[in-house]
Amino acid sequence: MNEPLRPADFTSDQEVRWCPGCGDYAILKAMRQVLAEIGRSPDEVVCVSGIGCAARFPYYLSTYGFHTIHGRAAAIASGVKLARPELDVWVVGGDGDFLAIGGNHTAHVLRRDADLNLLLFNNAIYGLTKGQASPTSPIGTQTPSSPAGTSEQPVNPPLFALGAGASFIARSIDARQKHLPEILKRAHQHKGASFVEILQNCPVYNDGVFGPITDKQEGPETVIELEDGAPMIFGRDRDKGLVFNAAEGRLEAVRVEEVGEAALARHMPENAAQAFALARLAAPVPIGVLYRRAGD
Amino acid sequence: MLDTSRSRASSRAGPLVVRFAGDSGDGIQLLGAEFSKSTADADTGFMTFPDYPAEIRAPAGTLFGVSAFQIQFGADEILTSGDAADVLVAFNPAALKSNLHVLKRGGLLIVDKGTFERRGLQKAGLDENPLDGDLAASYQLLPLDITAQTLEALAALDIGRKQAVRAKNFWVLGLIFWLFDRDPAKTEGWIARRFAADMSLREANTTALKAGHAFAETLELAAFPGVAPTRRAGAREHGAPPAREIVSGTQAMALGIRAVAKRAERDVLYCSYPITPASALLHALASGEGGVRIFQAEDEIAAACAAIGASYAGAIGMTASSGPGLSLKTEALGLAVSCELPLIVIDVQRAGPSTGMPTKPEQSDLTLAIHGRHGEAPVPVLAPATPEDCFAIMVEAAEIAISAMTPVIVLSDAYLANAASDWVSPDIDSLPHLAGLVQHPQDGFQPFARDAETLARPWVAPGTPGLAHRIGGLEKEAGSGHISYDPDNHAEMVRLRAEKIARLAGRRAAAEISTGDKTGDLLVVGWGSTYGAIRKAVQELRAEGRAVSHLHLRQLWPLPGGIDKIMSGFKKIVCPELNSGQLAGILRGELLLPVEPLTQVTGQPFRVGDLKAQLERRLES
């Protein structure tokens, strides 16, 4: 048996060139840790990316890497996986990559369900082109290309993935260095296309866009961490929970003491109706595995 | 009514051209295919061309629903499907109206006279019945009640009228078989196999075939004299006499792609998005046999990108499309150039721009293929000359792609894809050993180190132990492949990528005259599917004592070595193309020679007669 792999074994000789404070550093750290834990040789892992800040990712890993063209990473990774199914293939892109210029590929790679791990670094802005509004920018986002604020409805990534027929949909947050590696590992374990939205802060062009969600103090009140089979509870004092309003197909936040714990919804990731409700839930923001197809 | 002596005289003079025209639902293409098979069985050389509408099921009896099939066969080298027909079979008034212009004066005109009633004439936009006019003055008119005869022949069978009517293509086939002294036995066998599951269809078609054949005997009609079997160049000489088969450009290309997988000892991943007329190739490969797998992508871009991903991962990535699709793929081609990955891109050209005329041939994507990319991104461009050349060109494309680590574009067109001729299938094992061309990593591996001769970088697929590395579309430092913004490095990389492609000219076959002498009054330079028409026109001019030669380019970029020397041997250079003069412009720009364009953009192939007349004019001016 060889020595166990360490995160350093997945670190390339290239100097990382993201802005100081960029959320991508945290994702890179989590990824190196996860690859080491998975334990496959860097020679058997491929990271394919599109264009943008997130897409520089492969250069900073010691695995095989392919930095391709804007929006097309999923299509190129599909070809890699078809040619070499035995390799672990990770696809990395930003919100412009996955949901604007490459939206078509994202939809189709998900419905085709090839065994790829797709990581969407969602910072709700175009970073590398200097701060234009992206498809996930909230309404009213003021940027050089939208000085009066955006007026378009943003794309909801998990809902997009559900609509495309994805078999595994998860969400995590860059700064959550315990949660994120767990989610990446579960994405890797899933046989089929795994879609992971990672909320990522851009300190230069969109600082604090996820505001209280990514804030350490506010987090427990604004985020709900999903656990398979467990009642949906959140809050600093674990005093809040979610009930499923079946008539309207949505989850609603309640105080646990008002309804009793037995009335709370339990997280069943294979329940598609609940998954749609989770995808649409804005307060609190659910993180964890939102959906996993039954039998997968 | 019928002057058979005239038809016999004209058929003796040379090869024969037969054209079938009818409604999309009349089974014209099937009729043509079966007649072609019997031609191959008679060991006679031929070339066919189907001429069908883009509409799938156009309203019956209308002009735009007419489907036609033409075949030229004979003892000589058959180079085209023929300018004009000796025999035309028209299944209805619309087919007659839209195809009569193809029939030679004095040719045999067979029509289904029962369809020339009020409604049929109306649908064809005819005020008067042409059969009442003076057609017989110009043609040997043979009006037969084909539908009624078929129904009568099948009266005893237990099938409906609609089904019985559909057997009329086999009735006509029987008749034509008698005219050309062909044996219907093989076709009967084919019917038995094809309709094995449906006894009534099998019986109906066999009965119709025999009835048509028997009916022909009762006509006061002389059969055409038998055409002598041909022995065409390229046939395998050793061993047992090989069977003559029919191959369309699409089929030959599919076989060529399988040959690439075998000789490269690697999987081919063929990635495509449906588009006319390239889709036929996707269907031809869909069985997944012979080491070739297909991937039907969500769009043209994904098809190109998946092929690049496959090549990056060590398979041979291929993608195919037609003009509009090639436009969509060009960004991905830039990546393949920059990352120096092997990739084969097939463009089955059609009349453009935009949707244009999707089923009609044109050669108007040449400048797109050669120059149509962002940045300095040279890509080799090849073009097959005949349907059977579609096989060889794929092997050559792979040879270039693998040995120079580059994308290669193959320009076919709607004519080559659909035209068919007889061939003897090639011996795959005698083809170049493509696996031997792969550039393997050396000690002290660097992803962008180069072979001294070919300038190719090593092909190292993910999964190779100890060689994990990163590549991408950003400029790379020569050797290491690290991201580099160094001005001198960029200049050097641009030069290296161009030099790598330019060197192909020296490594590959030099330009060679295909017909005629090395010097003369006129050099005709062609490329792609116009080969047959140009060769025939040049042969005819030479037979008349004109000093004309034909140079046909199968490699458009880089231009083959020695081309300037050949051109300097002629007083005049003319370049016939199915576009507005794209190759002529490139030759002028590259060679600084006064190349004259000779263009046609009708969505139709050149007719030999037109081309010859045009060349005669150039000789005289």
Would you write up a description of this structure?
The complex is a heterodimer of chains A (296) and B (621). Chain A is built from 10 helices and 13 strands. Chain A has 2 domains: 7-209, Rossmann fold; 216-296, no CATH class. The mean pLDDT of chain A is 96. In chain A, helix 1 crosses helix 6 (179-189). Chain A has helices at residues 23-38, 73-83, 95-101, 103-112, 157-164, 179-189, 211-214, 219-222, 256-259, 272-280; strands at 45-49, 64-67, 88-94, 117-122, 125-126, 132-133, 168-173, 194-199, 223-225, 233-234, 240-245, 250-255, 285-292. In chain A, the strands form 3 sheets. In chain A, strands 2-1-3-4-8-7-13-9 form an 8-stranded mixed beta sheet, sandwiched between helices. Chain B contains 23 helices and 21 strands. In chain B, strand 12, helix 16 (389-404) and strand 13 form a beta-alpha-beta unit. In chain B, helix 8 runs parallel beside helix 10 and helix 9 runs antiparallel to helix 10. Chain A binds chain B through residues 12, 14, 41-46, 48, 51, 58-59, 61-69, 72, 75-84, 86-87, 104-105, 107-108, and chain B through 267, 269, 271, 293, 295, 297-299, 301-302, 305-315, 317, 331-332, 334-335, 339, 461-474, 482-483.
Helix-strand pattern of chain A: HEEHEHHEEEHEHEHHEEEEHHE
Largest sheet of chain A: 8 strands, mixed
Number of helices of chain B: 23
Structural class of chain B: alpha/beta
CATH domain class name of the largest domain in chain A? Alpha Beta
Average pLDDT of chain B, rounded to a whole number, is: 93
Number of domains of chain B: 3
Main β sheet profile of chain B = 8 strands, mixed
Order of neighbouring strands in the sheet with most strands of chain B: 6-5-4-1-3-2-14-7
Helicity level of chain A: 25-40%
Strand percentage of chain A lies at 15-25%
- In the CATH hierarchy, the third-tier topology of the largest domain in chain A is known as Rossmann fold
Q: Architecture of the largest domain in chain A, CATH level 2?
A: 3-Layer(aba) Sandwich
Q: Write down the CATH topology of the largest domain in chain B.
A: Pyruvate-ferredoxin Oxidoreductase, domain 3
Counting helices, strands and paired strands, the structural category of chain A is: alpha/beta
Most residues in contact, chain pair and counts = A-B, 38 and 43 residues
